[in-house]
Amino acid sequence: MAGFWENLFERLSKNTFLGKSVTWLGSSMRGFFSSFPYILGYIGRTFKSTFAFINEEKAARKILIMQLLFTFIEALPIIAFLSAALGAAIFLVGYDLLLSLGQASMIYQILVVVVVRELGPVLVAFVVTARSSTAIATEIGGMVTSHQVESYISVGVDPVDYLVAPRFLGVTLSVFFLCLYFSLCGILGPYVAAMFVNPSIAAGYFDQLLKNFSIMMIVASILKSIVFGMIISITATYFGFNVERSSTEIPVAGIRAVSNSFVGIIIADVVITLVPSLI
Do 129 and 135 contact (CB within 8 A), yes or no? Predict the structure, then answer.
């Protein structure tokens, strides 16, 4: 058996592309597992600082307010446009298609599942990641290279308490409220579109829609929004602190924060969606 593995690795090493791919994959996995205990410790430290931030009066509350302003308030127009346009497109196109199949009532179930439970939280998380994840990672990375973080430590201020906790709380709350806002606009958008295209459909729109809501669907949407917000904020601050001394590492930290946030969001979405069906 040992000879088989030796021959396999020898053949892979002769193939330049496969050899480089295997080497890159191995180094990536080794780097991930070597830093995994530190990541867990960082997550635990973030939760601890966030609870302390909530229970105590902190000067960093201004950072929380600014984070909510940038991540939540300024994202409202684009979220409203995306959700209303997506909901209207799904309803109008899907209704005609399902009507031809004699299943027009199914469009309400599809609309609720797509807008409220599945696509809504993911789209909101992607928008927040694109807007805020890069900004947070580059901002903290700039603080590291300019020695501001060292200055905080020298005067007895914990950087996690002052820099991470308000951003963690602000991004998580922003994603949660934006998901609610997305669902509301995604439900109202089809109704407004139906009033102009086919008023007869709009007459019983909300009655049909409410019949397809369920408690588990709402719980899944809320859970996804909270988990996605945590992933975005923790990933962004983590890679921001990973910047060492060179300013050229700052844009790299932003890119890594965005890409890893996307991966984490997709994995979390799959897990949250599949777990209820497996229980």
Answer: no
C-alpha distances out from residue 75 to 34, 205, 260, Å: 37, 28, 21
**Is 261 within 8 Å of 129 (Cβ atoms)?**
yes
Nearest-angstrom CA–CA distance, 50 and 197:
49
Structure tokens at 43: 């997550």
119-128 helix and 215-241 helix, angle to the nearest 10 degrees: 20
The Cα–Cα gap between 26 and 141 comes to: 27
Which pLDDT score, from 0 to 100, does residue 16 have? 54
Provide the pLDDT confidence category of residue 24 given band limits of 50, 70 and 90: very low
Q: Per residue, what are the HEC states of 216-276? A: HHHHHHHHHHHHHHHHHHHHHHHHHHCCCCCCCHHHHHHHHHHHHHHHHHHHHHHHHHHHH
Question: What gap in Å lies between CA 107 and CA 109, rounded to an integer?
Answer: 5
Residue 62, both tokens: 């201004």
| Largest distance between two CA atoms of the chain | 74
The residue among 98 and 239 whose pLDDT is bigger is 239
Angle between helices 215-241 and 165-197 (to 10 degrees): 140
Residue 187 has φ and ψ, to the nearest 5°, of -85, -40
Angle at 112 between CA 77 and CA 91, to 5 degrees: 75
pLDDT of 99 > 60? The answer is yes
Q: Is residue 25 over pLDDT 50? A: no
Tokens representing 87 are: 């909901």
DSSP letter for 124, please.
H
The helix/strand/coil state of 58 is coil
User: Cα separation of 96 and 90, whole Å?
Assistant: 10
Given a cut of 90, is residue 46 above it in pLDDT?
no
Burial of 12 (0-12, 13-18, 19+ CB in 10 A): middle
C-alpha to C-alpha distance for 93 and 113, rounded to whole angstroms: 16
